[in-house]
Amino acid sequence: MIRFEHVSKRYADGTMAVDDLSFEVAAGELVTLVGPSGCGKTTTMKMVNRLIEPTSGQIFLDGEDISEIDPVQLRRRIGYVIQQVGLFPHKTVLENTATVPHLLGWKKGDGKQRAAELLDLVGLDPSLYGDRYPEQLSGGQRQRVGVARALAADPPVLLMDEPFGAVDPVVREHLQTEFLRLQQEVNKTVLFVTHDIEEAVRLGDRIAVYGQGRIEQYDAPAAVLGAPANPYVADFVGSDRGLKRLSVTPIEETDLEQPPVVRLEDSAKTAGARMAAEGASWAVVLDSDGNLHGWVSSGRLLSGTVADHARRMEAWLPVGASLKRAFSTMLQHDAGWIAVIDESAKGRFLGVLTPATLHEALRRSTAADARAIPRTEVELETITGV
Fold it and tell me: Which end of the chain is more exposed for a tag (fewer CB within 10 A), N or C?
């Protein structure tokens, strides 16, 4: 969808903002450009919509050289979201959102209908917010309007220049979550500029880590964190990159342990005897369909059925959730393990994740990326004894 071929930007004073840049962004991919201030990431993004013209090289949009496209027409095909939003203060939220459809000559009613649909999509009820003015909105709400406006003409490409940088951390995290949800629905090709490596890791399908005017590493977040290309990237992503990697490493079924399992309808005596035979003090409780119900302690199984003594399970996650969510869930519930289920199969129980298997999953994922092999092929070495 977007392709840079040997693109450079040198200013009149001799400053080389971007130096011989070549990379591609696939259709529907969200790529984060991350690096320190002045490294060229914003210049890179602004060259895509010709707010800045390259000194040399070519940029292609869906196979078309953008230098041959009228700049105004090009910009109307590309959504653009900036940190300060840039809403028109004299226009309502609905009018702001309908700006680009209006410029493209849409009928007024069609533009307003599209604007209302987009406001609803970004979580702003048009009946409540449509007639308000920007000054009547919070910072986070204004950012949502900015995203809605950028999407109003249904552009294939979205450029975002530190869009969530001007809001507090709590709102920022919420906006990131909502944007990921939105991207799953609209599936745009996105270039997202940020100076925050954690934001880059959380949002990006791939990350471009910038040095001075150059991309030092262009890869999936897990690979950047697990196998930095050079000392500069390692230093930039931080010594805690192992912790950051938790957020981009999913739980896989092969990571799970299989604890004792009993059924709701089992008699307490039968279940207790089975657990005793396995030397287990607890067991996972499933319903008649094999779906997760809860857990039970062997000390409670004195009479009746398992259903009489089972406790509901609070610490659980779907397979595919991040190891960061798993670790957070363990801490939140003060749990020594969490259950993992298959949500696509109505909650079918798959196994449990413990602190030890979580650590192993992280080590296996890091080793797999470093050696370019599947996680299932990684054999971990474990040191025993001191």
Answer: C
